[in-house]
Amino acid sequence: MKNDITKGAIKRIWGIAKGGLRMTDDQLYTLVMSATGKSSISDLTEAEGKEVIRRLNDLLQKAKRNQLLKDKSTGVARIDAWRRTEEQDEKLAILIERVNGIYPKLSLDSLSRRMFGKEGSKLNRREAQAVIEALKSMCSRNQIEV
């Protein structure tokens, strides 16, 4: 029929469910049944397929958001877990100033672009720490006190 779900949409449904959400077959069929009232994905219409895909994408976004907000060690939600600290900002400023005696054109932006492809102001906590360690290494190679 003209309104039948396409093979591409069926692949997308299975891809999101299995790859992104790691759903079991039963979980997927329960979602399809609750969204459309049908027990078979191949029996869906194009509009019903789009609705199932929308619901799967909503679940996937929620799962990604929850994963980012949870501190893995305690399971407690922490919105600022990825933000770099003031201490890191201070340490970066001090180390850049010290290294500038040997590398006058070096800046936080130039180093962070080389290492991570983004401006220094957009570094997260882990990336900022990696830049700090790189700067410390530069200091020790050139016998500059850290």
From TrEMBL:
Pfam family, one: GemA
InterPro entries: Phage_Mu_Gp16
Protein name stated in the entry: Mu-like prophage protein gp16
